[in-house]
Design brief:
Layout lengths: L1 H17 L12 E3 L4 E3 L6 H6 L1 H20 L4 E4 L2 E4 L22 H9 L9 E4 L4 E4 L27 H29 L15 H13 L33 H16 L6 H20 L27 E2 L8 E2 L2
Antiparallel strand pairs: 1-2, 3-4, 5-6, 7-8
Length: about 350
């Protein structure tokens, strides 16, 4: 019986030496932020133990504080997701400064604004759809999309179709037009978000233009001449077109005297103030002027630092001018008048 008790005590001692207890005693309770999984230990460091064995002391301190943090986490409410126990963390109490600014909200596109006004809600669609031809799931849009009609090797032609028209090229061109239209709308949304208003792009090609588009095309065609449409002949039964644009607004000659007085006083106050002086630039100019004066007096009146008025070198003169009416002969010949 005594041997059994000794064995049990020995095993417990070995377990305690190998696995430390979860109960940690601290002179001052540590501060724990559950939301950030952060623990702050305000207890002072034992300098003697730290100097004797620094690595062991820091590892023991980190282990004790981590154990206290886990003990705190086990007191939080938990939930089970796919046979995994998860703890519900509260909102963090410690605020950390951000490295960068908060991202600005993305501006709404023209369609998003229209859908918001009309109450249209987008339905979430799956990214992959079933392709009957290849018998596999493929992306709904983009490269290698499912049910791509431009990859068909055979197209059925209707009885009233144009025999000279290529149906394969027609589908390819229609796809290119849709891509260009989407790109134009994307660039318009970017311009609208930056500048607020998008200027008119002139004439946008459409298959069936309406009355307003035709009148706009007519006005632009007339203005495209050198005289800006002043001498362009009018069509029969053509009405006079009114040009739309912004009118310049000028202040009246005799207006509000208070505003005029305040404006004049502001101008007078601005002129009466002394202009700001850049002290660093003025000091730098003064020092450079002093150095130039010292160099000028030392060299006997001749400057060296980039002075264009200094003495010109003998070897750096201008090239001799060529005499008109004379020709140079070959090596060893005599020069004479040219014929």
């Amino acid at each position: 019986m005594a041997d059994l008790v000794e064995n049990i005590l020995r095993e417990e001692a070995e377990k305690e030496s190998k696995y430390k207890t979860i109960v940690v005693q601290k002179d001052v309770d540590i501060e724990i932020d559950d939301g950030n999984l952060l623990a702050y230990d305000p207890n002072p460091i034992d300098v003697e133990l730290f100097r004797s064995n620094r690595n062991e002391y820091l590892s023991n301190l980190a282990r004790d504080n981590t154990q206290l943090l886990f003990n705190k986490l086990w007191t939080l409410p938990v939930e089970k997701v796919e046979n995994i126990v998860l703890a519900k963390l509260p909102n963090p109490s410690t605020q950390f400064p951000r490295e960068k600014r908060l991202p600005k909200p993305k501006p709404e596109t023209k369609w998003e604004k229209y859908a918001k006004v009309k109450g249209i809600q987008n339905k979430k669609k799956d990214k992959l759809v079933w392709d009957e031809q290849h018998k596999e799931f493929r992306p709904r849009w983009g490269y290698g999309r499912a049910n791509d009609d431009t990859k068909d090797w055979l197209i059925e032609i209707k009885s009233n179709a144009d025999p000279d028209e290529d149906p394969f090229a027609k589908r390819t061109n229609a796809k290119k037009e849709r891509t260009a239209k989407n790109e134009l709308q994307r660039l318009r949304n970017i311009a609208r978000s930056r500048y607020g208003k998008v200027p008119g792009v002139g004439l946008t090609p459409v298959s069936k233009p309406n009355k307003d588009q035709l009148s706009k095309a007519l006005v632009l065609a007339k203005k495209s001449t050198a005289s800006l449409g002043k001498f362009t002949e009018k069509l029969p039964k053509e009405k006079a077109t009114r040009e739309k644009g912004k009118r310049r607004k000028f202040e009246p000659c005799v207006g509000d005297m208070k505003k005029e007085k305040a404006k004049q006083l502001h101008i007078l106050h601005t002129l009466s103030q002394a202009p700001p002086v850049n002290v660093a630039k003025a000091a730098q100019q003064f020092m450079s002027q002093e150095e130039d004066n010292a160099t000028f007096s030392k060299e006997g009146g001749r400057k060296k630092r980039g002075d264009k008025a200094g003495r010109r070198s003998k070897a750096g003169g201008r090239p001799p001018k060529k005499n008109k009416g004379f020709q140079n002969r070959g090596k060893g010949g005599k020069g004479g008048k040219g014929k």
